[in-house]
Amino acid sequence: MSLPLRRAGAPAALLLPLLSLLAACATPQQPAAIGTPVAPPAPPATVEIIARTAGPIAGFSATPAALEAFRRACPRLLKREDSSGLTTPADWAAACADTDSNPASFFARHFTPVVLNDGKGLATGYFEPEIAGLYAAAPGAAPVLARPPELVDLNLKDWAITGGTIRGVVKGNRVVRAPDRAAIETGAFAKRGLELAWAADPVDFFFLQIQGSGRLGMPDGKVLRIGYDGQNGHQYVAIGKLLKDRGILPKPGMAEIKAWLRANPAEGAALMRENPSYIFFRKLPDSIDGPIGALGVPLIAEANAATDPAATPLGAPVWVETMVDGQPFRRLLVASDTGGAIKGPNRYDIFFGAGAEAGRKAGPLAAPLEARILLPNAAAQRLQQ
């Protein structure tokens, strides 16, 4: 079906400032040589985004999973501030109060398609990995650290400073930069009782940190689910890009990168530390059915995606058209998560679920996409004023 456009007259454009988060993992910068510290990113530039109402979406459909993903987001949408500036909590009230169980009629009734700039962007994928875990330290194992209590997030808007959020640690009466990956891995937070568990393989743990959540399969058969609980405020550096730029791996997929790291343990450890970003975790309840996204609710496979909240409202349904595993992928997703490298308009990281099959789909995905945000009708109407 087509999603009807609920508007009158010609659309008007709204110019929005897109401000990259200073402290989040930024788009990878030009790498230095192995072992050389990476400089902090320069202050971000302001980029204008044009948001305008669009025509009906040909072939629109919605799954029950997408409707469930939206309803999980609703309690947060009714309270939180939208950093993109496109919506207010009141805009979501009608949709969140509607109990219609038909996904297609529900989204058609409450939402209007909106395009950001030309609607063209990039799709990548992520998943929830499971790796071997340990209850106690062992030779070669990596500690899985909880968030240090002195790690704080500072919203620059509170000081009338243009920007997003920066992270640091409280030291005395000052906030200073947190230790980078190298410092943390050599004991910056050791002997603090922050260890939730240990990862048997540091390479597997490095990639679990990139995903932002995962499962630890423990020796007694139990599974410990861990979720993102903060980042150290240093920029993200993609080691696959470093390997490609240096002529080491021409096509560095996840499997190829892991194989090289294990075949070259000393050089691999140094390379991983060129990514100064470090993720902290918390234990998640056994009762949840997915990892927790940025909105604080469990994610659903192929019904949720990560986005840049400065461009796309968190919790917004998004229609994406791309290619996954060599096949057309046309799906309504709910943008309930964020990612350090997910920056700018029309940039979506699709959540594929847990396990090897999800990883097979997510790992190599880097495909062009076209996207339409579904804004609540009240929010879309303001674009025409």
Mean pLDDT: 86
- Overall number of strands: 18
Unreliable parts: 1-45
Strand content: 25-35%
Strand arrangement, largest sheet? 4-17-14-16-15-18
Tally of alpha and pi helices: 10
Structural class, please? alpha+beta
Our measurement of the CA-to-CA distance between the termini, rounded to an integer number of angstroms, reads 28 Å
What is the molecular shape? Answer: globular
Topology:
Elements: E1 14-18, E2 47-53, H1 64-77, H2 93-97, H3 103-110, E3 111-116, E4 120-128, E5 130-134, E6 142-145, E7 151-155, E8 165-171, E9 174-176, H4 181-185, E10 195-199, H5 202-211, E11 213-217, E12 223-231, H6 239-245, H7 254-263, H8 265-272, E13 279-283, E14 304-306, E15 317-324, E16 327-337, E17 347-354, H9 356-362, E18 366-376, H10 377-382
Structure overview:
- The protein has helices at residues 64-77, 93-97, 103-110, 181-185, 202-211, 239-245, 254-263, 265-272, 356-362, 377-382; strands at 14-18, 47-53, 111-116, 120-128, 130-134, 142-145, 151-155, 165-171, 174-176, 195-199, 213-217, 223-231, 279-283, 304-306, 317-324, 327-337, 347-354, 366-376.
- The chain has 385 residues and is of the alpha+beta class.
- Strand 15 and strand 16 form a beta hairpin.
- It is globular, with a radius of gyration of 21 Å.
- Residues 1-45 have low confidence and may be disordered.
